[in-house]
Amino acid sequence: MSLSIVIMAAGKGTRMKSAHPKVLHKIAGRPMLSHVISTTAGLSAQQQIVITGHGAEQVETTMRQAFSSLPLSFVRQEPQLGTGHAVQQAVPVLPNEGTTLILNGDTPLIEAATARALVEASGGDKLALLTIHLPDPTGYGRIVRDASGQKVLAIVEHKDATEAQRAITEVYTGVMAAPTAQLKHWLSKLTNQNAQGEYYLTDVVSLAQADGVAVVAAQPRDEVEVLGVNSPLQLAELERRHQRAQAARLMEQGVRLADPARFDVRGTLQCGQDVDIDVNCVFEGTVTVGDRVQIGANCVIRNATIGAGVVIQPFTHIDGDTLGATVGEGSIIGPFARLRPGAQLGPEVHIGNFVEVKNSTLGRGAKANHLAYLGDATVGERVNYGAGSITANYDGANKHRTVIGNDVQVGSNCVLVAPITVGDGATIGGGSTLGKDAPAGQLTVARAKQVSLAGWQRPEKIKR
Ligand code: UD1
Ligand code: MG
């Protein structure tokens, strides 16, 4: 059976009071519309059609970049005359058979299983509605059933509903699945004779009834799946609910979160056994954390792989960006450390406070414990890199590499002007600025010789 997906995303989102289109506001670090597109991509539909209007250019560009491999197409709705009018715009690109699943772009947490179940409930010949009972149904379209309660007769929008209908707590969530050919027919019959002067998609229900097509209802597993976002407050509330759910899933797997209410995953976080995560940590992109890792408070970790037994002290920032960052087993990072893209740390490495590592490989047991910079460097095993030392990797035009062998001691406050190589077992005297290679096994010092002037007199304040 061929499946088409239509996602409505043309509305303005007035209550967001933002210059950005509503569907691009983010939940868990991704635009709301991206969530709906990637979830429904799992249904292997023939096509996914997004209806755009407000901020169409920006919405389409953002989604094309994010989903270059999906069969996404965009249809513009200009002006926006209601949800029925929105789907009417897709009619020319919809086939004449199969099923169409319609969703809202501002309801980001719908799950694939729920959407799939709705398509199955439609079964190719029924109109299936996703409904839910809400204690406060204000604003939603009400599901009107016959006296037996078995048959769905219509959806009545809040503004058009009678007092008796407003008392109904079963509401339409904005998701439906319909046989495409019939849907097209019903769409052609919509009118805007209602309280809002809009073409309501929800009127297809009474049209289906009139045609003798069965209307069935299914429910989501969890209310959070159908919560829409209309304001910054609702955006933040949905974000928290989503984060709480992710935290609960990780804790069920054994991860110990100091406080699930102060924890954010914006992407995927995979954890081994006996992982402890203190408060206010943010995980972005793809992060993998090995067994027995301890992460201190206020760490931000993005696109990184953390080996078993690693201790990450508070206020550490690890950002692998597109290159990734790796921390080897048993390493100790932080507090206040910064690992940037391409930081590849071997096992048992120590990176201390105010140390920045970028595009550098560090061998087993290498240490840079205080106030240092390692950029574009290859650092051997057991190297001790002193406080205040830096690799001068940039000549104003190009980046150059620094190579440091095994068992090297770099004193404090050294400048290694790249390209440069420091041989195995070399010692660099503190305060040296090296512009040439330092040979293996030797002490290299490159600084002014110390002098002491005997009999020197400190100037005295002139008395007036
Ligand atoms: C709609 C339903 C209502 C349901 C509720 C669930 C209708 C008439 N009503 O109401 O029964 O309870 O959703 O959240 O469908 N959009 C367009 N073009 C338009 C208008 C809207 O693309 O011309 C898009 C919006 O961007 C949004 C979605 O359609 O993603 C829903 O629109 P919205 O105005 O929020 O509909 P509701 O009044 O909430
Ligand atoms: Mg709405």
Description:
The chain is an alpha/beta fold. The protein has two domains: 3-226, Spore Coat Polysaccharide Biosynthesis Protein SpsA, Chain A, CATH 3.90.550; 254-444, 3 Solenoid (UDP N-Acetylglucosamine Acyltransferase, domain 1). The strands form five sheets. The chain has a 22-stranded parallel beta sheet that branches. Strands 5-4-1-6-10-7-11 form a seven-stranded mixed beta sheet. The chain is elongated, with a radius of gyration of 31 Å. The mean pLDDT is 97. Residues 8-11, 51, 53, 77, 80-83, 85-86, 104-106, 140-141, 155, 157, 171-174, 200-202, 228 line the site of uridine-diphosphate-N-acetylglucosamine.
Explain briefly what this protein structure is:
With 464 residues, this protein is an alpha/beta fold. The model has no long low-confidence stretch (mean pLDDT 97). Uridine-diphosphate-N-acetylglucosamine binds at residues 8-11, 51, 53, 77, 80-83, 85-86, 104-106, 140-141, 155, 157, 171-174, 200-202, 228.
Structural class of the secondary elements? alpha/beta
Number of helical runs?
8
Spatial extent as radius of gyration: 31 Å
Low-confidence stretches: none
> How much β-strand is present in the residues?
25-35%
The named CATH superfamily of the largest domain: Spore Coat Polysaccharide Biosynthesis Protein SpsA, Chain A
Number of strands: 36
Number of domains: 2
Distance between the termini: 103 Å
Bound ligands: uridine-diphosphate-N-acetylglucosamine, magnesium ion
Give a quick set of tags describing it.
464 residues; alpha/beta; 2 domains; binds uridine-diphosphate-N-acetylglucosamine; binds magnesium ion
